[in-house]
TrEMBL record:
Segments of skewed composition (Basic and acidic residues): 131-145
Superkingdom: Eukaryota
InterPro entries: SET_dom_sf, SETD3_SETD6_MTase
Single GO term (MF): protein-lysine N-methyltransferase activity
CDD domains, per the entry: SET_LSMT
Composition bias, Low complexity: 109-130
UniProt-annotated stretches for the region Disordered: 109-167
Protein name as catalogued: SET domain-containing protein
Length: 167
C-alpha cells in the first residue's frame, strides 16, 4: 500500500523518446516530483538523446522554461489537465474554481438521440447543434460536459449552462 501511495502521488508523465515528445511513460523523478503544480507553468520536460555505450536510445530528462522565471519565483510544473477529483486522489490538493479541467457529467433521461427529430417539432434539414461536439450519445441518453463559466473550450460561441456551487 505504501509503495502504491508513493507511486501515485510522486510519479510524473515523462517523454520516453528523444524524437517524440508524445510518447510518455510514468517514472519517479527525484527533485522534479517536489515541484508544485500550476496550470500555467512556463516549464516543460524534454527528453534529450543521451548516448550510453554507443546506444542512442537513452533519454536524459531536462526541465526547460518557455519564458524567464523571475528570481525568487517558484519553479512549477504542470501535472496535466486533471480535475479536482483526480488532483485530490493523486496529489492531495484541489485548485477549486481556478481549475480549467473541472467538469460535471449530466445525464438527461428520456430524450431522443441528438439529430433525431422529436414529435413536437417539425424536422429540419440541419440537426440541432446545441451540444453535437460536446455531448456523447448512449442509447436514448445524452451525456454532456459542463465547463466552468459555461463555455466550451475552443468554442467560445458555444456556451453550455454554468453550474453554480449551491453550498
Amino acid at each position: 500500500l505504501g509503495a502504491k501511495a508513493i507511486y501515485w502521488s510522486r510519479a510524473l508523465s515523462i517523454p520516453t523518446d528523444p524524437s517524440s515528445q508524445v510518447k510518455l511513460t510514468h517514472a519517479l523523478c527525484p527533485l522534479l516530483d517536489s515541484l508544485n503544480h500550476s496550470s500555467n507553468a512556463p516549464t516543460y520536460l524534454e527528453c534529450k538523446n543521451a548516448e550510453k555505450d554507443g546506444a542512442s536510445d537513452t533519454c536524459l530528462l531536462v526541465l526547460r522554461a518557455s519564458k524567464r522565471i523571475a528570481p525568487g519565483s517558484p519553479v512549477e510544473i504542470n501535472y496535466g489537465a486533471r480535475s479536482d477529483g483526480e488532483l485530490l486522489k493523486c496529489f492531495g490538493f484541489v485548485l477549486g474554481t481556478n481549475n480549467p479541467a473541472n467538469f460535471a457529467r449530466v445525464t438527461l433521461e428520456g430524450t431522443p438521440p441528438m439529430g433525431t427529430p422529436s414529435t413536437s417539432t417539425p424536422p429540419t434539414s440541419t440537426p440541432p447543434t446545441e451540444s453535437r461536439s460536446e455531448g456523447r450519445i448512449k442509447g436514448n441518453r445524452k451525456e454532456f460536459r459542463c465547463y466552468p463559466g459555461g463555455v466550451v473550450p475552443g468554442h467560445p460561441s458555444k456556451s453550455l449552462w454554468n453550474l453554480q456551487d449551491r453550498n
